[in-house]
Amino acid sequence: MKPLLKTDHEIEALLSTPTKGALDAVANLPGDFLVLGVGGKMGTTTAVMLRRALDAVGRRDAVVTGVSRFSRADARTELESWGVRTQACDLAEAAQLQTLPAVPNVFYLAGQKFGTSSAPEVTWIQNTLVPALVAQRFRDSRIVVFSTGCVYPFTPVTGNGSKEGDELAFLGEYASTCVGRERIFTHHSKLYGTPQLIYRLNYAVELRYGVLVDLALKVLRGETVDVTMGWLNCIWQGDACARALQCLGHTASPPRILNVTGSEKLSVRALATEFARRLGRDAIIVGEEAPTAWLADASQSIALFGPLETPVEKMVEMISDYVIGGGKLLGKPTHFEARNGQF
Q1: pLDDT tens-place string over residues 222-249
Q2: Three-state DSSP state, 4
Q3: Which of 52, 54, 157, 256 matches a 20 to 30 Å C-alpha distance to 44?
Q4: What is the CATH number of the domain that holds 155?
């Protein structure tokens, strides 16, 4: 077992190491950068990797600004320790949006998922009103818009998953608002000619959070693993953020749509069994695999950007070592097993 990464800074150093693709991407993108919604798990890694990549290719003059309401002061301190500028802003307030710098390169990671069932009205504000305000404010920028594979319907597990051109679904309020976010950005892209890429992400994973962490913890704690949602896709968070940086070079109007996740369709039963082997526990499996699941076909993004840097076997190994060593967790289950669209 390798030494346990103990601090958020150490974990961020691992997650935000730029890939060659990320380095090449930022070397050819002039101007400064904004990361909207930087306070989330993906936002922090995106901003830090961007800063590190720019420094590595000799573009230290390019400014990376991370924008959030910053309810946690330590999140702001961590970003600034890496050289990311920070600016507090409530994106739902049009007047505050006007205080943000006009830059050519924007990553949009703001949104709400957890808590939708208890406060759906807030989710609608964050996932539809805010995109409208942002799309108008940054009509002259190129924008990578983070979305989710939850906009697709369940697909047969015998296939490869949903493709970018497939019809969308509205399974629950969260998915509905995410479709709304995409539609609103698309409208403004067509209206103003704003180059955009809609980045449909399926299950980014890191040491403290993600579907693989959820499964490892269930096995470690002797909890049941329901395999009704029997298959999934996932991707290491560092790979996901590197691909986001590369996506800035592939924006278009109307927006290009791209599925981003791993190339493999993973069995929940097999993953639980492997975690049990590594953790020295028994996997307590319940249920039977449904004939459908939320799956996405990432062949387009893999053709564009090449194979992933971090394979599934490596993720399982790292997460097993981390959870059995008592590593710090974010305490936010993904609820990947939910089949009713409620989070």
Answers
A1: 999 999 999 999 999 999 999 999 999 9
A2: coil
A3: 256
A4: 3.40.50.720
